[in-house]
Amino acid sequence: MAVLISERVLKPTVSVQRFDPQTDTKPRFESHAVEVAERASILDALFALQRGPIPDLAFRFSCRVGMCGSCAMVVNGREQLTCSTLVKSIGPTLKIEPLRNLPVVRDLAVDLAPFFAAYQKTLPHFTPRADLDPKEFYRLPHDRPEWKALNHQPQCIDCAACYSGCTLVTLRPRYTGPMALHRALSLIVDPRDSRREERLQLVSQEDGALRCHTLGNCHDVCPRGISPTQSIERIKRMAILAPFRRWFGRSRPSKPAANAA
Ligand code: SF4
Ligand code: FES
To answer: Is the overall model pTM greater than 0.85, yes or no?
Structure first.
């Protein structure tokens, strides 16, 4: 026997930013009431707008399950993954804007080029040590202290919420930004990598980790619970200690922090 489960309908008012850099001089907002199911996500509310009053609304999404990071936007002033955030968790009024600190392609879709360009500056590719045992290459033994430091890395989904939330990126667009520094740390502490010193120097330069004011915005907005702030603090400590390490002839990193993010 089929069982029908009735779901409450929500009628939020959704205000979205509209902007086409080809034709508009400045952004404007367009508001509409939409009907969505009680368990609808913010992304579902955007689809409702597209099906109804704003068929040409531009926004980005892909996986719809919180894995790809492409649907991040600013909702009521805070960065959110729109596919994984329920409308009812925000309230009856939603104001949706594109991510900050990035150029708008159209409406809610941004150009991520500056975000990835900053990442490229940190020497983001793994360079294995010449003496590396192939077994070690593929699997770092879990009983090694470095394992804890690496364990966080797969969580980052390149959503750019931290880049959008970072006040320093707003004030100083050349700043490397939280994601790139967080990822750099995971290579700096990887005992299989051969370019630790070079990488540490790169991310400790003028627009690198030492610029961070430790406001913690990136930590607050990261949908994966990562704390780039802690990673940056750790890079700062390593950069300050690096001359002493060189002096004493040590080249491998310190033991990982309790939260190795
Ligand atoms: S660190 Fe968090 S907020 Fe930043 S890109 Fe990765 S998942 Fe997104
Ligand atoms: S669509 Fe992939 S994380 Fe939201």
So the answer is: yes
Q: What gap in Å lies between CA 135 and CA 192, rounded to an integer?
A: 11
Ligand 2 atom closest to Cα of residue 69: 3
Q: What is the pLDDT of residues 20-49, one digit of tens each?
A: 999 999 999 999 999 999 999 999 999 999
CATH code at 118? Answer: 1.10.1060.10
Residue identifier of the C-alpha nearest atom 3 of ligand 2 = 66
CA–CA separation, 4 vs 2, rounded Å? 6
Q: What's the pLDDT tens digit per position in 168-226?
A: 999 999 999 999 999 999 889 888 889 989 999 999 988 999 999 999 999 999 999 99
CB 225 within 8 A of CB 155: yes
Domain hosting residue 216, numbered range: 113-248
The reply to whether ligand 2 has any atom less than 6 angstroms from the CB of 71 is yes
User: For residue 41, how far is its CA from the centre of ligand 2 (angstroms)?
Assistant: 11
Tokens of 179: 């994601």
